[in-house]
């Protein structure tokens, strides 16, 4: 059952008025313009024990994604494909509003938005995750861990998911003679991300559309629209959020703005990954093979 | 959405159930179908059948769950175990939790909750048979049930899903089209005010296709809205006639 | 400018309106919490009937939750006894409060025991609403002619629409039932009805007749109603009037 939240942080009226009056002169409380996004920083391969991971800061919002790949059963209708599972946890340390316990509707919604954006467009090559067709495949668990909620969890999670998946290596599972699945040393290779998928959220406050809303902006917004795109601009998913309404012209404008924002996210991710890969290549040569994470573990 | 070997649209552009691309399924609606509820509605789009009931506004317990300046809405979207091809466990799935939320947020855009502070309005939705478009059918039924319960709202909400099947945009997709298609885009709207309250997209569309799909949805929603209004009017038409006789 | 000021009505007296229906445009005297404004247009928010009186537009909702108004007479059910007041279910989203000061019980005597003796959980009471603003629970009073504990007869609940019709428009139906069953029938503003007669059989007959009126959605002629009551009376051993 979904219940109107009654533990909303109370945004003082004057604050809402301030937000709106700032928007009228093209500014936001944190000094950004309406279409500006917050500072992004990304740490790929943050968790050495995972098969792929990324820590993403979007302003003060902090999201960690860890990917684990394990043997499992295929879906009956896709016997020759691995399984993609996207899950989200809003852990209590991330916000005074989060409670311990099973995921709530917001966590489910977030996970399903990200999941849909990858699933239908077949962004991940799941055929590479088969051990015995129809019987044993690899299940890819993409766990989204929200560590600090300062608004726009969806975009931060989408970025962390994309980077983690692009950094994911497929463990070397093989079927032994007795039909057992055994894990061998090393990796089979990198996970093939066929399409880079990203999600960008735009909020509507009064007559204004703003990119990358903060938590406070989310609370005062009329509604939000999260749009998922592939890198070539095809819409791969969409979700209207919040208890308000939008007109057709709002949606058109918000889709356009979210595409602009999505391209910015992708550019940022590309440049961060490029410099990270160059650095780790360099380190690999110096340290001849052992990766920095494994060292940290000892 | 898996690939399917069945052809979903023939060479004449006719869909597997005989419809044209821009045609909705036969729609039937009735209100006041449950005695106990303050308001109720039964809505079918083809084989998809949804029952919605409204209880309240009523005192919310526990008290701390209420809001001092408006009513809270509690919405449960639930699929009956026998509603699907394979039995569905009655325990709520992630999908049902999410859909309960998007339906609640859509209804909150329409209900004047500020008229009933400190109370709760419960909206229970049971999908009795699922054949595609269950969330938009649910939203259409829930809105009718709210009107039947006498809960003040800005407008009725009507909804429909547009899909992309074999490269073609089609209206009000059924389950076969949903699972064999490339996109499913449910839309819910308050037609008189031109306000969209529910919008999701599962699958992929170009931006041009998206705009076209939106236009198709809005056009169909206006048709569905007329059926909703007719349904409500029919229930009360007798009473006015009776009253006029008395005058 | 002039067409903004001059109102345009899109509805007529007694029309049924639905949520989202356009009612009027321009400067109109609106007198209903069920009509809302968007720009210069007025819309209905409920299923209801239009009433235009002295250029003012009202909406009578067909179904609605009972919201108490001062001076309403309500039939309440005592659900709790507090130190200085009783909690009263008045068939509304809001619970009523009956303070000791609004009864004939002297405040100096007010202890939990005297309160319980005076009115206890499960008692029906006929009360008047003195104040209500939706932020605080409605305050009720027992001071006034006819008000007090209901000690005999039967109390039933019917739909708010039928109750309002019986109360304001179709008094004749109520009078017919009362006459045929020799009972007194009191209709509260909160869709509860109190029936009291000389014996239980006649009261049951009145209840049955009221339920019949409700189930036929008021579509029953006076003659048919009288026939119905007389037939039922026969079945019960022909108590004659």
UniProtKB/TrEMBL annotation, chain B:
GO terms for cellular component: cytoplasmic exosome (RNase complex). It is found in: Cytoplasm. Residues 23-152, 155-220 form the Exoribonuclease phosphorolytic domain. The keyword Cell inner membrane does not apply. Its EC number is 3.1.13.-. Its main location: cytoplasm. It is an enzyme of class 3 (hydrolase). It holds the Pfam family RNase_PH_C. PANTHER family: EXOSOME COMPLEX COMPONENT, EXOSOME COMPLEX COMPONENT RRP41. Component of the archaeal exosome complex. Forms a hexameric ring-like arrangement composed of 3 Rrp41-Rrp42 heterodimers. The hexameric ring associates with a trimer of Rrp4 and/or Csl4 subunits. Belongs to the RNase PH family. Rrp41 subfamily. Catalytic component of the exosome, which is a complex involved in RNA degradation. Has 3'->5' exoribonuclease activity. Can also synthesize heteropolymeric RNA-tails. This is Exosome complex component Rrp41. It comes from Fervidicoccus fontis.
Automatic annotation (TrEMBL), chain C:
Signal peptide: none annotated. Transmembrane segments: none annotated. GO terms for cellular component: cytoplasm; exosome (RNase complex). One of its GO terms (molecular function) is poly(A) binding. InterPro entries: Exosome_RNA_bind1/RRP40/RRP4 (IPR026699), KH_dom_type_1_sf (IPR036612), NA-bd_OB-fold (IPR012340), Rrp4 (IPR023474), RRP4_N (IPR054371), S1_domain (IPR003029), S1_RRP4 (IPR048565). GO terms for biological process: CUT catabolic process; exonucleolytic trimming to generate mature 3'-end of 5.8S rRNA from tricistronic rRNA transcript (SSU-rRNA, 5.8S rRNA, LSU-rRNA); poly(A)-dependent snoRNA 3'-end processing; U4 snRNA 3'-end processing. Its main location: cytoplasm. NCBIfam families: PRK04163.1-1. Component of the archaeal exosome complex. Forms a trimer of Rrp4 and/or Csl4 subunits. The trimer associates with an hexameric ring-like arrangement composed of 3 Rrp41-Rrp42 heterodimers. This is Exosome complex component Rrp4. It comes from Fervidicoccus fontis.
